[in-house]
Amino acid sequence: MVSSHLSDRQPSVADTHQPLHDRPSAVWLHATAIIALGLLAVAAPFVVIRLSGPVATGGLTWDFSMGLGFGALGLAVLQFVLTGRLRWVTHPFGADIVYLTHRYLSYGAVALMLAHFGLLYVFHEPALGVLNPFEARWELTAGRVALVCFLGLIVTSQFRKLLRLRYELWRGLHLTLAIVGMIAAIAHVLGVGALTDTPQKRALWLGAVLGFMAVLAFTHGMRPWLQRRNPWRVVANTPERGGVHTLELAPQGRALTRWKPGQFAWLKVARSPFSLTEHPFTISTAPEKGPNLSFSIKPLGDHSDALAQTPVGAVAYVDGPYGAFSVDRMAGAEGFVMIAGGVGITPILSNLHALEARGDPRPVIVIYGSPTLDEASFREELADMKTRLNLTLVHVIDSPPEDWSGARGKVDGDLLRAHLPAGTRHWPHLMCGPGPMLDALRPELRAMGVPMRHIDYEIFEMV
């Protein structure tokens, strides 16, 4: 792989890099603080309203409906924080988990909005006025616009592939609906005015507006501006087995910092740093082999097809690193079990590169499932690593050639039991591959006696 043979004109950090091990106690403390801040953001409207004086009540159903509406707005504001790629938010969990949390909390926000509207429609219909937006009061129309926008977000995200929305189009639509919906929701609250009648309450909503605008400005303004001042250049595009192409990027400014093996970055190639067309890819080499970065990309449709054909010399922009799928999170492990399917081998490969560069003597068992032997990407590189690592490599081929003497079929519970000795149950188990594969293997590992805390997996598709 190209990333193992970096250009001599770039300074190497292999001799100076120190693994950035995370102390478990610090990670747990950080995670607890983030969750507490999130709960505070949702609870803040209720606390401020309660403490800022008596509230005019319209009865139980009215008050409950208002509470649902304010809870929904708190969750909506929180979504911009969760999707803003703020490292202090993503660090303890991994960006994939944060994005998954965003997805489920957005369902909750829309459910609260629908319940808010539904209770008013059933018990307090006169308060809704007329539904015709040309005749209704503007603040009520703003609330309905917000509801339609957030419903559109859910539908287009959940059924993106069914609707045949290209990723780039979907992302632009997603951002537009989110911004319009948020502005309309805040306008609705301020326009209704029932719970914004004191300085404390107005300060609450002003804070929500400023926070929303700050995250938006950083994500789509400041961050791309900083990337523009720090470009990368494609110095190699190497075809690999299985249709994968490895792009090697050299920094034209500051190299990537605080980078752990197994992490990923968002990549833009031959586009403006302000473009919405970008995709997350694993950095398939290790920090010790920097400062160049390698991204191993399999054409799967949308923009990845074009990325795989990127010419040498193209300018690129990198936003990262992100993710927690790293051996550096498991400094005290006695050994590692790594399970990959298809192009899911790339974060596994990055971690192996790091262990190799450090001369790490700990045992590693890699189980790698591929449709055919020819589609087993990096097969030769993995075999070569066996000479320098305490590595047991098990290729599992679904449709093997006639002379194949190794494991056949798919990676399943029986195969895991056959190749994982009992002494490995307390080792970290790192898995990356298609969703159905991970869904099938997690209960199998648990049945084998592997504690849930020792099962770590990378979510293959975040959107």
Could you explain the architecture of this structure?
With 463 residues, the protein is of the alpha/beta class. It folds into 3 domains: 24-226, Four Helix Bundle (Hemerythrin (Met), subunit A), CATH 1.20.120; 230-322, Translation factors (Elongation Factor Tu (Ef-tu), domain 3), CATH 2.40.30; 327-458, Nucleotide-binding domain of ferredoxin-NADP reductase (FNR) module (Rossmann fold), CATH 3.40.50.80. The chain is 45% helix and 15% strand. The chain contains 12 helices and 12 strands. The protein has helices at 24-51, 60-82, 87-90, 95-123, 138-158, 167-192, 199-228, 303-308, 345-357, 379-385, 413-419, 435-447; strands spanning 232-239, 245-251, 264-269, 279-282, 293-297, 315-322, 336-341, 364-370, 391-397, 407-408, 429-432, 455-458. The strands form 2 sheets. A 6-stranded antiparallel β-sheet has the order 4-3-6-1-2-5. It has a 6-stranded parallel β-sheet with strand order 10-9-8-7-11-12, with helices on both faces. Helix 2 runs parallel beside helix 7 (199-228). The longest helix is centred in the middle third of the chain and has 30 residues, at 199-228. The two termini are 28 Å apart.
Describe the protein's topology:
Layout lengths: L23 H28 L8 H23 L4 H4 L4 H29 L14 H21 L8 H26 L6 H30 L3 E8 L5 E7 L12 E6 L9 E4 L10 E5 L5 H6 L6 E8 L13 E6 L3 H13 L6 E7 L8 H7 L5 E7 L9 E2 L4 H7 L9 E4 L2 H13 L7 E4 L5
Parallel strand pairs: 7-8, 7-11, 8-9, 9-10, 11-12
Antiparallel strand pairs: 1-2, 1-6, 2-5, 3-4, 3-6
Helix pairs in contact: 1-2, 1-7, 2-4, 2-7, 4-5, 5-6
